[in-house]
């Protein structure tokens, strides 16, 4: 379900201004009308006036870039770098965009040089940094850390003046996940899944129902196996010696590399272990690399597409 919009639009301001003007006498000054070139939006730092249709957006951390691209806009600056390794859809669009700092600490001078008309931060932001960024251009802080992928698209659609694009993306996501769930109903009913990834040199994580990637899988109809199914934290860490807790899993999902299909080399610390190789799902060949790190609806749709293929392969195994 799409949440109610959390932003104030110029339409609200115009309606209020018209009402005040109607109540006053003809000798009074007319009520001020908000500029048609800007809107006020609600952010984690309070209300901020932004351009009605921002065109030069700097994403001052890593995750916002994906959501902005989803809505049809290429940023003029991005934080974090390494986008060339994020797959064809995002990598081809972002690899040439100037990097304006790392993931958590943007370079204020480089951001200013990019000439933004809007700066976007999608992680918690200290007040001192916020003031520096706001001196360059209107700065919107909306932390993705507590939002669903649907919330992300909805809120950024309002901020960027692209609500039509956001609604189209939401519809595409809902239709895709529903189609996967319906198409593979029999296979989904027959198997349970665990999505696991390497945490350290000696430990791995199981990803619980609240993890962003897992929410996409659940929307596709995936049933999690224990212990993932019951864990309350997004991730739960176990030592490699405890890998046999994955034995209830009918199939195992592991992170793929940039192509979304081939297993990431980072899995080797876990998948090269004899304990891993002795799991029933591994012996049966039911281990599938999938897209991981979903941070926007577009990446969620990519994950749903991959699960469509995985479930087809699983049905034929």
TrEMBL record:
Keyword terms of this UniProt record: Signal, Transport
Top-level taxonomic group: Bacteria
TM spans (from-to): none
Region (Disordered): 27-48
InterPro entries to which the protein is assigned, alphabetical: ABC_transptr_periplasmic_BD (IPR002491), Bact_iron-sidero_bind (IPR051313), TAT_signal (IPR006311)
Biased composition (Basic and acidic residues): 37-47
Subcellular location(s) of the protein: Cell envelope
Pfam families assigned: Peripla_BP_2 (PF01497)
Major site of localization recorded for this protein: other
Fe/B12 periplasmic-binding domain mapped to chain residues: 56-317
Compositional bias annotation for Low complexity: 27-36
Signal peptide positions on this chain: 1-21
PANTHER family the UniProt entry points to: IRON III DICITRATE-BINDING PERIPLASMIC PROTEIN, IRON(3+)-HYDROXAMATE-BINDING PROTEIN FHUD
Homology family: Belongs to the bacterial solute-binding protein 8 family.
Name recorded for this polypeptide: Iron complex transport system substrate-binding protein
The organism of origin for this protein: Catenuloplanes nepalensis
